[in-house]
Amino acid sequence: MTNSLKYPKSGSNSSPPLLQNYGELLQQLHKVPDTDNAQAHNDHGIAVPPVLAPAECQLPLIDLSPYTRGSNRSLILEGEELERQACAANICRASSQWGFFQVVNHGINHELLWRMRREQARLFEAPFETKANSGLLNNSYRWGTPSATCPAQFSWSEAFHIPLTKISDAACYGDYISLREVMMELAAAMSKLARMLVGILAERMGHQKGAFDSMCEESTCFLRLNRYPACPVLSHDTFGLVPHTDSNFLTILSQDQVGGLHLLKDSQWVAVKPNQEALIVNIGDLLQAWSNDVYKSVEHKVMTNEKMERYSIAYFLCPSYESLIGNCREPSVYRKFTFGEYRHQVQEDVKSTGRKVGLPHFRLQQTLAS
């Protein structure tokens, strides 16, 4: 995609009341001093400390054409096999060193991604009351962070988080039925790509490519449509999406040209340079646990933009809730646990502490003590 998609400007009745909720949290922390220094405050009178912009990084870029070229052929030529081995090595290296990488020639049609973004923008243009109360897309609409008690826990965003089993249900779409065909096609394409990538990662650890096929079901895999409205309340802790790791095997992300995705690299936050020609892939907690920390589930966040809204689409590859997350080799770094147990622990952590703890709960004691 070489052209920038110009999204329609969101009207005041389409955006959720983020400013009201977030502003109340900020007022609890920032006391405005009696000063004429206008540069120290935003338009809402809230003190804003100076923040240094993080360095911008280019994620490892991997060409998947050795796997997607001639994918319908049963015969793989000798030269193609060597290309595949080199490609697989790059995927595993990026998964170990970064936990993130981007892919081109991934097999998903750019026109399909373009159509999806147009439909997504149209959906988010719906009045807030329609999105929140009409049961659209399996009643999957979410905004902000209702449980937040401080700005560091609040996400300046809105999203539809839809299980794959509901994407084909025409009754979920209301007046947005044209979205259905596009979402079904995109979900199938992203599912195929995610399973191919996780298969490559499994094979490099000495397991069969289909090691996760029987575990991953449509009922627990999700497609998430995100919108990050322009944010007039800029401060050091204004997140579009709070820092977190993904509680799954693998995530595939399609984002627009606005940027805002940041990740931890060598204990420093870095901003990911947008690349509209590529999809972003990141490792989730379950794959880190299964690989005994060979593949890294890296903390990441989305930062707000004062003037521009940002759109993204994420696909989450997850196992069934009963699936046991084992280890690829012994000795194990983590005790065995099910996906359902992991999700429950995350929910309990957020309820009691306001944040996800995640994998450290499941490390074996001897590992923690060593």
From TrEMBL:
Gene3D superfamilies: B-lactam Antibiotic, Isopenicillin N Synthase, Chain. It comes from the Eukaryota. The keyword Mitochondrion does not apply. GO terms for molecular function: gibberellin 2-beta-dioxygenase activity; metal ion binding. GO terms for biological process: gibberellin metabolic process. Its EC number is 1.14.11.13. It is an enzyme of class 1 (oxidoreductase). Keywords: Dioxygenase, Iron, Metal-binding, Oxidoreductase. It catalyses: gibberellin A1 + 2-oxoglutarate + O2 = gibberellin A8 + succinate + CO2. PROSITE patterns: FE2OG_OXY (PS51471). Transmembrane segments: none annotated. Residues 217-319 form the Fe2OG dioxygenase domain. Belongs to the iron/ascorbate-dependent oxidoreductase family. GA2OX subfamily. This is gibberellin 2beta-dioxygenase. It comes from Punica granatum. The lineage of its organism: Eukaryota, Viridiplantae, Streptophyta, Embryophyta, Tracheophyta.
